[in-house]
Design brief:
By secondary structure, this protein is of the alpha+beta class. It contains 21 helices and 27 strands. Helix 6 crosses helix 16, helix 10 crosses helix 13 and helix 13 packs antiparallel against helix 14. One of its GO terms (cellular component) is nucleolus.
């Protein structure tokens, strides 16, 4: 009669007769395209979904009834229920059963109905006696996208909505690779890479390429280029390759100076990295397990550049081998890979890490910050620098566990990421020195004054005395909070940043050059007017970590010792020089000029205000953390004093333009007395004279208006 019994139906303990022509077409399609194993129980209903979908997913009720083969005068079993739950019955009763107990409680998605299923597809928990056969079989739904089994209908709706919000389709869960025609070729810094069509969507995909991280990649390339000038060749690792764009840029521009290893634990990403290597005419050296199948550049063209591609967990590859340069860029936080990164990194090597868990680092999810970094933070005006110091503190503790210290070369916190680049110093002494720089921060929540807690383990009777402000004495309750532990040392190395700027100019990295100029000014705490790109006294006489570093214009080569420490005499002189120049480090944190503006007053331009602070005898510079931020060693009271002096009223006719003349007893550079101790008599107001108003406004300790 042209009907046969489906093998799949037999496995579910019921007989379903399907036309023979349909089975032959299905077998023919299965030979042409072999479905993945995890979706073998799903029957195809559309070209957009797997070829095999579960029988509970149908378009119409009639399709579901066809599985039962309803015919008059014969008893049939329900295709979605076991026989012990629903016995065979006549067609009219089975029709009502399918309609009321399966079809009406289904979940609809793009024209398909995911009906409830009572078969033994989902493992059930045993009862108290331990006999699973006596336990009740649980009803469940089968997801049409990822083939997951969900028990509740509301949970199934939420599960489908999450797929839709993330833009995930069936192809996201198929291990078979997409055809080459669906790839896009993106060019960045003279490097071509193949990416997936959804590379620009902000989601976690198998091979994620983010065009917004171009600046991040350029900064890391400049750091590696500086290290390649110190010693050659260097072994560098991109632990999370994805498309391999970063490692390809290293190998393509630095050539024989570097030995690049690109790692990824995803098979699809590894295959894409190999194709991108061939696209850029690079040789591919596979890991030990696949060395017999080494591939070379096609078209008969020989190239000495070779990239090693590995498919391992990042922690495993960093434990197995030693590297001079390691870059970590996982999805989210990097704390899970810090111990492995510092275990085998070579002395004077560099570890760079990019953290994209912005919600926790920028104090939007403080409980996550406590869980990942062991740090307590709150939202402040300097929250970006707080995030950078939080990451460096975690890096310091991880390095100290491996008897290694660090020197921070670069710390950048922008909208999408926090980048930290550190140099590794082997030995317990550098580890102890670095660990001592991890301290707590006392932050006043009323005026946002801040100061690092003094070193020592002894408890202080009144910790509020460490704050320069007097908010605790003039305001009721507790006004300060303890943040940290945080990194209290410098965030930049001026000489290293200058050499990074030279490499950026050399390789034409236009996006990184303005940021590096800002970072050099910030590290020196100077204004851009005093900044010089070609300063012969800085980049050519570079000394870091007690080691002479070779630079392009060094003439005295006899004094260079690559990768070795200097003599004891030189180390002692270096230590003395570092102690003398310790005060020259850039001051920690910054103030936002809008946050501390005065109500009813026009504040001066930012560059003019920087010059006013500099004339008052303070070190001052702009900061990349905040476009309206001012990094200075001036206390907050002096900062407000200078800001008040050079602000003008907003209304016309009150006073001519120019600085506001403060009372004679209070001058710039003197300590501002507490608000409770200030006693100013209100003078009589004369038409056109606003000095009394300014004196009254100045006696208010902290303005309540903040022009953010």
């Amino acid at each position: 009669d042209g009907l046969v019994v489906s093998e799949k139906a037999k496995s579910n303990n019921f007989d379903v007769k399907i036309p023979k022509s349909e089975l032959e077409a299905e077998e023919k399609g299965a030979e042409e395209e072999r479905p993945r194993e995890s979706d073998s129980n799903i029957l195809d209903v559309s070209s957009e979904y797997p070829r095999d979908k579960h029988i509970s997913i149908q378009r119409q009720l009639a399709d579901l009834e066809k599985l039962a083969d309803l015919s008059e005068g014969e008893r049939k079993s329900c295709p979605l229920c076991p026989e012990d739950k629903f016995k065979a019955c006549y067609s009219h009763k089975l029709h009502r059963h399918l309609q009321n107990l399966h079809w009406k409680v289904s979940v609809e998605f793009e024209g398909y109905r995911m009906c409830i299923c009572h078969l033994s597809c989902r493992p059930v928990k045993p009862n108290l006696v331990g006999d699973q056969t006596l336990s009740k079989l649980g009803a469940h739904y089968h997801c049409i996208i990822c083939s997951a089994t969900i028990v509740r209908r509301t949970d199934m709706i939420g599960h489908i909505n999450r797929h839709v919000n993330k833009g995930e389709t069936e192809s996201r869960f198929i291990t078979a690779r997409a055809p080459k025609s669906s790839y896009e070729v993106v060019k960045e810094s003279a490097t071509d890479v193949q990416v997936l069509p959804n590379h620009s969507t902000p989601q976690k995909t198998d091979s994620y390429f983010n065009p917004k991280m171009k600046l991040n990649r350029q900064l890391i390339f400049c750091a590696l280029a500086v290290l390649s000038e110190e010693r050659k060749p260097i072994e560098c690792l991109d632990a999370f390759g994805a498309t391999g764009i970063m490692g390809l840029q290293w190998a393509k521009h630095l050539r024989s100076s570097v030995k690049v290893t690109i790692n990824d634990c995803n098979e699809t990403s590894v295959a894409m990295i190999k194709e991108n290597c061939h696209l850029n005419k690079m040789k591919v050296k596979l890991n030990i397990k696949e060395e017999d199948n080494d591939e070379t550049v096609g078209n008969g063209e020989e190239n000495s550049d070779t990239i090693e591609v590995t498919k391992m967990d990042a922690n495993v590859v960093m434990h197995l081998r030693s590297f001079d340069f390691i870059h970590l860029d996982p999805f989210g936080t990097s704390v899970n890979y810090l111990d492995a990164a510092f275990r085998n990194v070579r002395n004077l090597g560099i570890v760079s890490l990019t953290s994209t868990d912005i919600s926790s680092l920028y104090a939007k999810a403080q409980h996550v910050t406590q869980r990942h970094y062991g740090c307590n933070i709150v939202r402040t005006e300097y929250y970006k620098e707080l995030a950078a110091r939080t990451v460096i503190a975690a890096v310091t503790r991880a390095a100290a566990r491996c008897n290694k210290g660090i020197e921070v070369l670069l710390a950048v916190a922008l909208e999408h990421f926090v980048l930290v680049v550190v140099r590794v110093l082997r030995g317990p002494a550098p580890a102890d020195d670095s660990a001592r720089k991890v301290r707590y921060l006392i932050h006043c929540q009323w005026c946002e004054e801040r100061v690092f807690q003094r070193e020592g383990n002894m408890m202080e009777e009144n910790p509020y005395q460490q704050l320069p402000c007097d908010c605790h004495g003039s305001m009721p309750g507790k006004t300060a909070v303890l943040l940290g532990p945080l990194w209290s040392g410098a965030l930049f190395n001026t000489g290293f940043l200058r050499r990074m700027l030279l490499e950026a100019v050399k390789y034409g990295l236009d996006e990184a050059q303005p940021l590096l100029k800002t970072l050099v000014c910030e590290s020196e705490c100077t204004t851009p007017k005093r900044f010089s790109t070609h300063n012969p006294g800085d980049e050519y006489k570079q000394e870091e970590c007690g080691v002479y570093i070779r630079t392009p214009n060094t003439s005295a080569k006899s004094h260079l010792v690559h990768g070795k420490r200097k003599s004891e005499e030189a180390l002692r002189s270096t230590a003395k020089r570092q102690r003398a120049e310790h005060s020259a480090e850039h001051p920690p944190f910054y103030y936002n000029i809008h946050r501390h503006s005065i109500k009813g007053m026009n504040m001066p331009k930012l560059n003019k205000f920087l010059s006013y602070l500099s004339e008052a005898g303070f070190r001052v510079s702009r900061t990349h953390f905040d476009p309206m931020g001012v990094r200075t060693n001036a206390p907050l009271a002096q900062f407000k004093t200078v800001l008040m002096k050079y602000s003008t009223p907003t209304y016309v006719g009150a006073q001519a333009e120019g600085p506001v003349h403060l009372p004679g007893e209070l001058q710039v550079g003197e300590e501002v007395p507490a608000a409770a101790a200030i006693k100013v008599e209100e003078p009589e107001l004369v038409e056109g004279d606003m000095s009394g108003v300014f004196a009254t406004m100045f006696t208010q300790p902290y303005p309540t208006h903040c022009a953010d």
